[in-house]
Design goal:
This protein has about 400 residues and is α+β, with helices and mostly antiparallel strands. It is built from twelve helices and five strands. It has a five-stranded mixed sheet with strand order 1-2-3-5-4.
C-alpha cells in the first residue's frame, strides 16, 4: 500500500494501529522488571511517536522504511529485556506490511514472528505448540487482512475508473446525439422549405409569367402582376438562402464532389477508398446534394464496418439527364434479399441507416436505388437521380 494514501479508512486504521502499539508498550513498561526494560519501552514509544507525528515519514517511503527499521530495532531490545514485548509483535506486523513493499514486508513479518518465538523461549517460556502457533497465527492474520484490504482497494479503484469512463462516455454520447439531432433537424427544415415554400413560390412565378403572356397589351393589371412576380422571385431567392444556410456542414464550404472526396480521404481504412468524378459537374439542388452525401456516408460506413474489403470506390457521374452515385467494394458481400429491414449496404445489420432508408432518400427525389451483391463477390450500391426542372435548381 502507498503510504501517501490519505483516505479516511486508511487514516482511521493507521491511528488504531498506533494506539494499539502504544498501549502494548505501556503494558510492557508497567510489567517490566527493572529500569532497563522501562527505559527500552520508553525509547520504543518515543520512536513510535516520532514516526506518527513526523510529516516526512508519511510523505517518503524511504524515510518510513528507516523509521520502521529503528522501531523494530528498539522492539528487539525491549523483547530481550521483557517477555511482555512479545505482544507488540502483532501491530508491528501490520506496520511492516503497510509501509514496506510486499517483497520486503512478508520476509519482515516472518523475521518478526521468529524473533517473537525466540524471545518467548529465551525468557524461559514453556516450549509448546502454542508458543509457535500464536506468533505465526498472528502473522497469518495480519498478512491475510492487509492483502485482502489491498485486493478490495484495487477492485474499488477499478470500479471507480470504470464509473468515470462510463460517465464520460455517456456525456460524449449525449453530445453526439444532440449534434446528430441538430443536423437531422437542419436537414428536415431544409427539405421542408425546399419542397413547400420554394416549390410553391416557383410555381407562383410560372403562373404569373403565363398570366403576363395572355394579358392584353396595356392592361392595368400588368404592373401588379409584374410586381407580384418580382416579389415571388425575391422570396424564392430568400427561401433558397435559408436552404443553403441549413446545408450539412460537409457541404457548406464546397461542392458535393469536394465533400465526397473529403469523405474518402478521411476514411479510417482498410479498405483503401478512392473517389472519382465522371462527366461534367453540374449544379445540383441542395436536397440532391444532401441525399447523395448521406447515402455515400451510410454505404461507405457499412463497407468499413462489415464488408472486410481491401478496396472501395465512390464514383459520382454527371450524365445528360441525371446524376449517379456508385459505391463499390470487393468485400465479403451478402444476399440483399435475405437482409432484414434494418440491414446495411455493406453486410450485416447496420446501426440505423439501412437499405430502406437509402432507397427512401433516392425515391423521394424521383430517383432509383439498387444494390448488387453476392457472397464473396463484393457489393455495389447505385443511386440515380434525374435532374430537376431548371426552375427547381437551388
Amino acid at each position: 500500500m502507498d503510504v501517501r494514501q490519505h483516505s479516511p479508512v486508511v487514516v482511521t486504521l493507521r491511528l488504531c494501529l498506533y494506539a494499539l502499539f502504544a498501549g502494548l508498550l505501556a503494558l510492557a513498561a508497567i510489567r517490566a522488571e527493572g529500569p532497563a526494560a522501562v527505559a527500552a519501552a520508553a525509547v520504543t514509544g518515543a520512536v513510535l511517536a516520532w514516526g506518527v507525528l513526523s510529516p516526512a515519514v508519511h510523505r517518503s517511503r524511504r524515510r518510513a522504511a528507516v523509521w520502521l527499521g529503528a522501531l523494530s530495532l528498539c522492539w528487539l531490545v525491549l523483547l530481550v529485556l521483557s517477555p511482555d514485548a512479545l505482544w507488540a509483535a502483532f501491530p508491528l506486523y501490520f506496520l511492516q506490511l503497510h509501509l514496506l513493499p510486499a517483497r520486503w514486508g512478508l520476509p519482515a513479518v516472518g523475521a518478526t514472528a521468529a524473533a517473537a518465538i525466540a524471545g518467548f523461549v529465551g525468557h524461559g517460556g514453556q516450549v509448546t505448540p502454542g508458543a509457535f502457533i500464536g506468533p505465526l497465527l498472528g502473522a497469518g492474520v495480519a498478512v491475510a487482512t492487509v492483502l485482502g484490504y489491498e485486493a478490495l482497494y484495487r477492485e474499488s479503484e477499478r470500479r471507480r475508473e470504470l464509473i468515470e469512463e462510463l460517465v464520460a462516455t455517456r456525456a460524449e454520447l449525449a453530445g453526439a446525439e444532440r449534434t446528430a439531432g441538430t443536423l437531422a433537424e437542419r436537414e428536415r427544415l431544409a427539405r421542408e422549405i425546399h419542397d413547400t415554400l420554394a416549390q410553391g413560390l416557383s410555381s407562383i412565378q410560372l403562373l404569373l409569367r403565363a398570366a403576363q403572356r395572355v394579358l392584353p397589351e396595356g392592361s392595368p393589371a400588368a404592373g401588379h402582376i409584374e410586381q407580384a412576380r418580382a416579389t415571388a422571385q425575391d422570396n424564392l431567392a430568400e427561401a433558397r438562402r435559408f436552404v443553403h444556410a441549413l446545408t450539412p456542414p460537409d457541404l457548406e464550404h464546397g461542392s458535393l464532389a469536394g465533400a465526397l472526396e473529403r469523405l474518402c480521404s478521411g476514411a479510417a481504412g482498410p479498405p483503401a477508398v478512392r473517389f472519382s468524378v465522371s462527366g461534367t459537374p453540374a449544379e445540383l439542388p441542395t436536397p440532391y446534394e444532401v441525399a447523395l452525401l448521406r447515402i455515400a456516408q451510410s454505404a461507405l460506413g457499412n463497407t468499413l464496418r462489415h464488408a472486410g474489403a481491401g478496396r472501395a470506390e465512390i464514383t459520382l457521374s454527371f450524365m445528360d439527364t441525371s446524376v449517379a452515385l456508385d459505391v463499390v467494394d470487393d468485400g465479403v458481400g451478402f444476399v440483399p434479399a435475405a437482409v432484414p429491414a434494418r440491414a446495411g449496404a455493406g453486410g450485416p445489420v447496420d446501426g440505423g441507416f439501412g437499405l430502406p432508408a437509402m432507397r427512401a432518400r433516392a425515391e423521394a427525389l424521383g430517383g432509383t436505388f439498387a444494390v448488387e451483391s453476392a457472397p464473396g463477390q463484393g457489393t455495389a450500391v447505385a443511386v440515380t437521380l434525374p435532374y430537376p426542372a431548371r426552375e427547381d435548381r437551388a
